Write a sequence for this structure.
């Protein structure tokens, strides 16, 4: 049974520490060869990541980020909002093998089926009740309803989701062992792209009307 005196934020801190412990192959990114390598997001050439800013151009804002303090706007078709603290918004993470997301859910909101091709994900529920589930490459489905202080892990690359099943808003923080985990959001990846209708109708064994109806929800 969960000890109710343990703060969810303490658990989040533990997740971050575990991901930073220098165990071989735990991080999805290469080991650093210097104290830091703050990302130069304006560099004209990038090779599987970002080059380092000159040390003379590094400032304290590269190492501090307050974006996760703000509640996200959940007024969308999914009723959820992702606020990322990855290398694109937090350049000090460059080469450090870690990123964090804040996930806000409206009542009934969902973080829809998606995957992260470049990182494993672990998270902690801060508020509300959230159904967390993922599917393996063998089509085995694992899921559980989690409350504040409870933690989950999603292995790298597997399709997963989180859905708010509580009576009000929900909040979670998720941590990744990569500076830019990437996301393949299945609904938009499939139905807001240029995949031909005949591929989608044959894949899902539905007719054009169904595919066009789904595409219309995503402005495609």
């Amino acid at each position: 049974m969960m000890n109710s005196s343990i703060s969810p934020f303490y658990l989040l801190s533990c997740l971050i520490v575990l991901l930073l412990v220098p165990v071989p192959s735990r991080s999805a990114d290469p080991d650093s060869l210097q104290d830091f390598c703050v990302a130069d997001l304006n560099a004209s050439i990038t090779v599987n990541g970002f080059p380092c800013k000159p040390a003379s151009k590094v400032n304290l804002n590269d190492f501090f980020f307050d974006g996760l303090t703000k509640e996200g706007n959940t007024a969308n078709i999914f009723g959820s909002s992702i606020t990322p603290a990855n290398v694109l918004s937090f350049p000090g993470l460059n080469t450090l093998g870690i990123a964090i997301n804040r996930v806000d859910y409206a009542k009934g909101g969902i973080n829809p089926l998606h995957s992260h091709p470049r990182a494993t994900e672990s998270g902690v529920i801060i508020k509300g009740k959230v159904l967390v589930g993922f599917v393996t490459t063998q089509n085995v489905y694992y899921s559980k309803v989690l409350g504040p202080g409870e933690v989950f892990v999603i292995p790298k690359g597997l399709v997963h989701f989180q859905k708010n099943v509580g009576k009000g808003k929900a909040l979670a923080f998720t941590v990744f062992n990569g500076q830019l985990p990437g996301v393949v959001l299945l609904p938009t990846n499939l139905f807001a792209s240029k995949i031909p209708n005949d591929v989608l109708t044959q894949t899902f064994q539905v007719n054009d009307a169904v595919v066009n109806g789904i595409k219309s929800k995503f402005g495609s």
Notes: The two ends are 47 Å apart (CA to CA).
